[in-house]
Amino acid sequence: QVQLVESGGGLVQAGGSLRVSCAASGDTFSRYSMGWFRQAPGKERDFVAGIAWTSGRTRYVDSVEGRFTISRDNAKNTVYLQMNRLEPEDTAIYYCAASTGAALFDAPNLYAYWGLGTQVTVSS
Hints:
0% of the residues lie in helices and 51% in strands. The chain has strands spanning 2-7, 10-13, 18-26, 33-39, 46-52, 58-60, 68-73, 78-83, 92-98, 113-114, 118-123. By secondary structure, it is mainly beta.
């Protein structure tokens, strides 16, 4: 079992930056990959970025490539999502998720563990 807790969300003006964090606890010694998803009101939950815990390999959705950076701190069992040049379309609840394999899946159903999310709002 893996428990995930997101933090760091908030209100940011367009063009600004924000970093959200995901602290993992429980069965964190096994190899797995982690991802960030986001869901806006009335829309489906979409993949944003992923990282393989052991190798550090990353993957991004095209709309955030070059603006967002996913990283992890092995000692703290924490994954981060640095968001720069934020746009109103980035407004959503951001969820942290973990899979049991190293592959960077982009489908929500392939992630077994989820946090409760943190709200990110970008004003225009």
